[in-house]
Amino acid sequence: MPKAPSFFLLLWLVLLLASAAADQNLRKTTCPLCNMDVKPDMNATILGNQYVYACEMAGHIESLQNDPSANLGLPEEADISIDAIYKDAREIKCPVCSKSFDELTYAVPWISKGAQKIYTCSKEHAQLVFDNPTKYVAAQTSSDDFCYAGAAVNPTGSVMFNGFQTAIGGDTSCLMLLFQPWVITSEVKYVFSFLGVVLLAVLLEGFGELREFVEKWLFRVYSIVSRQTDYVLMCGAATPRVRRNSDALIANESLALKVGHTPQVSIVRRLPFWGKLVLAVMYMGHLSLGYLVMLVIMTFETLMFVAVVVGVGLGFVIFKDTEADKLGGSVDPCCST
């Protein structure tokens, strides 16, 4: 006879596996609008303990639950026992009459991507769902909230909108800015996020100037003379001149000899390994800032795009030497190196 702790542990594992098998298989579920992987908390409820799931793209879950008639296909006969998504979801019932899992023989498919369905017990009930889906699919109602953060305990948001739009309004998905916990659900969060994006873009420009300054300073103070070569013209004697290249990592290996040119001495300077390592770390940091700015733009949130443009402009005004012969950097924020 097994010991009590081992027995209860085994029982707990069995119950855990049984409960896990009772749900819709989300690993094989994709968004009906774009075929991307779905998020568990991006769902709309359907009568009969059924759900439709969507990805994080802004507007997708809203489209499915607010306008289901535009996203449902014609009723079809279906065998739920061999459906890879629903075969273990034994708690679902017919949304019309609440008949159990074993009696579900027809389905109304969500279109046009993926394989999600609304299962019913008969063709007639499937037709009822198709003809009047808003009666069975829980439509999202308008609210006075700053934005729609979902019905889950933790607020949810979209990382990318369908074209430029603002994440403001009770019927609009909240914006998830860069990281999952950063869901902008209030006016205060939005203002601080806007200012943070402006600061991020300013830092992008400033860090580029800092990199250039540190590189010149390292060459000026810590560069090592590694080679000295004399080039003397055969056509006559002249006093050599010394050309010191302290701003380039590697000077020209040789000087082209042309008749009439003054003989020169080329001094090649290189940074020690630790100096190259410092520049490499700064390069990675600068590139990381650039990609963060790029990801903010890719949310397609209008005011966040404005924040990036404002920040880059302020950074140019603050850090760029506009009187220099040549302006460094790039107008491409993600690659401003």
UniProtKB/TrEMBL annotation:
<feature type="transmembrane region" description="Helical">
    <location>
        <begin position="277"/>
        <end position="297"/>
    </location>
</feature>
<keyword id="KW-0472">Membrane</keyword>
<feature type="transmembrane region" description="Helical">
    <location>
        <begin position="303"/>
        <end position="319"/>
    </location>
</feature>
<keyword id="KW-0406">Ion transport</keyword>
<dbReference type="Pfam" id="PF04145">
    <property type="entry name" value="Ctr"/>
</dbReference>
<dbReference type="InterPro" id="IPR007274">
    <property type="entry name" value="Cop_transporter"/>
</dbReference>
<dbReference type="GO" id="GO:0005375">
    <property type="term" value="F:copper ion transmembrane transporter activity"/>
</dbReference>
<keyword id="KW-0187">Copper transport</keyword>
<keyword id="KW-1133">Transmembrane helix</keyword>
<keyword id="KW-0812">Transmembrane</keyword>
<keyword id="KW-0186">Copper</keyword>
<comment type="similarity">
    <text>Belongs to the copper transporter (Ctr) (TC 1.A.56) family. SLC31A subfamily.</text>
</comment>
<protein>
    <recommendedName>
        <fullName>Copper transport protein</fullName>
    </recommendedName>
</protein>
<feature type="signal peptide">
    <location>
        <begin position="1"/>
        <end position="22"/>
    </location>
</feature>
<feature type="transmembrane region" description="Helical">
    <location>
        <begin position="190"/>
        <end position="210"/>
    </location>
</feature>
<dbReference type="GO" id="GO:0005886">
    <property type="term" value="C:plasma membrane"/>
</dbReference>
<keyword id="KW-0732">Signal</keyword>
<keyword id="KW-0813">Transport</keyword>
